[in-house]
Specification:
The protein has about 150 residues and is of the alpha/beta class. The chain is about 45% helix and about 15% strand.
Length: about 150
Amino acid sequence: MSLPQHDWSVRDIASADDIRAIERQPYGQVIPFRSTFDLIRHSAARVPDKAALIFQVDADVNGEILKWSYSGLLEQIVRAANLFRQCGIGRGDPVAILAPNIPSTHVALWGAQLAGCVFPINYLLGAEHISKLLQAAQVRVVVTLAQSE
């Protein structure tokens, strides 16, 4: 994978002419990543300790905040992908994700993309609808939350 000739940042874009200059370049030159995983892997190599995910656990303004570095996130994604592979998931095999937008959902989503194919399903749908989606996609692995009280 070749890196872009210029690592664009928001600071570099000051006018419409700057945007047009970026848009005139071949897409693969400006955005050399073929997947989210490639982008995360690149960021983990470049800025391993920088925060990749920041998540406020609850609505309390002084509540707990989770921070995952790029290197930590990359490690978790690879572990998830390896787990999916151990479960028999291969290229193109769908892994259903039925979970809210929390950090572990991102890990499962990107791990499923790396191992096979991610099949996110709105966890708020009815059981019958979810069942039909799982059957239609021939899903063998489902990731969801544990039982809660």
